[in-house]
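Per your request, structure below.
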């Protein structure tokens, strides 16, 4: 199966993508991971990507689409993909349609986690990462304590871009760009929307039910 997962910043999309990967033995496709991997290989394309990012520019759709095609053409990932963070715009969505058909595959379902702006802001503003062990906490929803975290609280930090102005801008951008993509998949009868403000396990239970119904 091939699954596309959508959700605004702070929706828990990455967590649910990891849950899907573990439960259904799939491979997660994250454009950020693909770009970092290409850079680490020090290929000509990787060096080009590194130069673009260092200048503060966005990597072109053409480069992203080429990286996606590498994955889709690899037989070990045949019908075993979870797309997290791709497609990011309607042109990428249509390119994915083309590549899926080219490599004799199909999109099983598209899952969108819907979360209100207020909850997104609170989730991201409360996000804390331990610089010592790498665990992620939230001062509102999952605070660090002696039962779940062995490091001292002095190691907890917030990302520099986790401020309300940037969060609201990212949320608006997500809505503006993603809505046409969701409508695209809705017309193809692939879209399943889930309320994303409940707990992680409850959300994943709904995702499992959707996938199970499609496998039956």
């Amino acid at each position: 199966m091939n699954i596309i997962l959508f959700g605004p910043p702070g929706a828990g999309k990455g967590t649910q993508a990891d849950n899907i990967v573990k439960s259904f033995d799939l491979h997660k496709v994250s454009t950020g991971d693909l770009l970092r991997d290409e850079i680490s290989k020090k290929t000509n394309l990787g060096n080009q990507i590194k130069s673009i990012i260092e200048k503060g520019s966005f990597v072109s759709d053409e480069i992203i689409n080429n990286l996606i095609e590498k994955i889709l053409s690899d037989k070990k990932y045949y019908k075993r993909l979870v797309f997290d963070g791709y497609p990011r715009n309607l042109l990428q969505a249509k390119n994915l349609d083309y590549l899926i058909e080219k490599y004799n595959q199909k999109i099983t379902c598209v899952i969108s986690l819907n979360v209100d702006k207020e909850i997104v802001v609170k989730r991201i503003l409360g996000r804390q990462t331990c610089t010592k062990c790498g665990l992620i906490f939230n001062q509102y929803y999952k605070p660090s304590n002696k039962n779940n975290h062995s490091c001292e609280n002095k190691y907890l930090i917030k990302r520099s871009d986790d401020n309300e102005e940037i969060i609201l801008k990212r949320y608006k951008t997500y809505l503006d760009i993603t809505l046409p993509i969701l409508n695209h998949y809705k017309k193809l009868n692939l879209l399943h929307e889930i309320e994303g403000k409940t707990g992680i396990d409850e959300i994943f239970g709904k995702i499992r039910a959707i996938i199970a119904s499609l496998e039956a």
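The chain has eight helices and eight strands.

Regards,
D.
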